[in-house]
Write a structure and sequence with these properties.
The chain is α+β, with helices and mostly antiparallel strands. The protein contains two helices and four strands.
């Protein structure tokens, strides 16, 4: 099983991350004008705990992509 992150520039997207990465990803997305829709998990008793964060944004695609990239840059640090 692996983790994934994806961006869709038309509807809400999500980022899968470890629990310890939630705050840094939130900060990266929000500082780039992307709005958080939901934070939750799909699996029980996983180690490490995998959290899914759904987000959306409006604006030019390059700006939205840069905001998504800023979140990816903090994953795994």
């Amino acid at each position: 099983m692996g983790l994934n992150s994806w961006a869709m520039l038309k509807s809400p997207a999500d980022i899968a991350k470890r629990e310890s990465e939630v705050n840094s990803v939130l900060k990266a997305l929000r500082s780039n004008g992307l709005n958080i829709v939901a934070i939750h998990h799909h699996m029980l008793d996983t180690q490490p705990n995998v959290i899914f964060l759904h987000y959306w944004g409006r604006g030019p695609a390059p700006k939205l992509a840069a905001g998504f990239r800023s979140a990816l840059d903090v994953l795994g640090k």
